[in-house]
Amino acid sequence: MNITNSSVLIDSYFANKSKKLISLLLIIVGSLLLTVSAKVSVPFYPVPMTMQTLVVLFIGLTFGRFLGPLTIFTYLAQGALGLPVFANGGGFLYLMGPTGGYLLGFFLSSIILSHIANLGWNRSYFLTFISLLIGLFVIFFTGLTQLGFLLGKSLTETISLGLLPFIYGELFKISILAIFVPLISRK
Length: 187
Hints:
With about 190 residues, the protein is mainly α. It is built from nine helices and two strands.
């Protein structure tokens, strides 16, 4: 088992380029993808879905142990500073609001997924799928915790509000990633 700080994208696709420049570009592109994916919703039943968790999970499994979390942190810092990068605005108080726990979950998920990827789990379809379930669990656990606390809802009400409407969309997204990530990680 080789534990490194490597990025699948840099090592596989940009090996002969300046790592600092490529790292900076990945952080910028990742942050832009997170912003766009927060703003664009796709009609889905029972609620519209964004592609934001897809981007977060992709970054976590492919950007590496340093770049993955740094990219998510950069995105969150931009939003905390007031840039309108989140789905409905920005600012530090947005992070403290009912949906802020999901955003914190993005960061925690990227830390966990990037470590899992360094163990090679992103090269197997099955292990990638399990990794993605772990990443989603972290996002929804932190999101539901803050949502329930701030809204004063019971666990059942919180799950009905903040998880159940999104299950089908999330399973769809991780199914896409479970196929795509191993393909690019094996190169």
